[in-house]
Amino acid sequence: MTTITPFLWYDDEARQAAEHYVSLFADSRIDSVAETPDGHVLVVEFTLLGRPCRAMNGGPGHPHSDAVSFQVDVDTQDELDRVWDALLADGGRPSVCGWLFDRWGLAWQVTPSMMGELMTGSGDPAANARVYEAMMDMQKLDIAALRAAAAGR
Q1: Which positions fall inside the PhnB-like domain (predicted)?
Q2: How many structural domains comprise the chain?
């Protein structure tokens, strides 16, 4: 069977990053840790929201960029706030439109699960434009404000 697995490069904190990520989401766990003969962590295999991932301590020279990110869809504002705050903890930085960079520089999008519906589902171009404009003024997304924009309030 052919599969695809995200493989993330870290300078030297792959285990710490994987442990942080799996602590945030249900159906997530560390599956294995491969070490070099001298006991340094080389590769961490982990499951994140039921999907396999790998992280490697490869040393400097290959920083993360927002060209590749993880998008996390959440159902409620409370869950959005919890995930957003946890990913920003200890040195992350917010960006725009629901994007942020965690303390290791990995890009994340924390978005409402109904975002697609809010952006295009109404079939009303004016409503879609209002949602887009509201989103463009946000860092962390505000579900109530996005719904209000869609409704024209």
Answers
A1: 3-111
A2: 2
Structure tokens at 58: 């490869």
- The residue range of the domain holding 135 is 64-153
Per the CB < 8 A criterion, the answer to whether 8 and 54 are in contact is yes
12 three-class SS: coil
Q: Do residue 2 and residue 27 come from a single domain?
A: yes
Whether 16 contacts 103, CB under 8 Å: no
What are the structure tokens assigned to 27, written together?
């159906």
Structure tokens at 115: 């975002």
Q: How many CA atoms lie within 13 A of 52 on its CB side?
A: 7
pLDDT digits (tens, 9 = 90+) for 24-69: 999 999 999 999 999 999 999 999 999 999 999 999 999 999 999 9
Q: What confidence tens digit (pLDDT) does each residue in 88-127 have?
A: 999 999 999 999 999 999 999 999 999 988 888 778 899 9
* CA–CA distance, 64 with 75 (Å, rounded to integer): 27
Alpha-carbon distance of 4 to 131, in angstroms, equals 33
- My answer on whether 108 and 71 are in the same domain is yes
Judge if 48 and 95 occupy the same domain: no
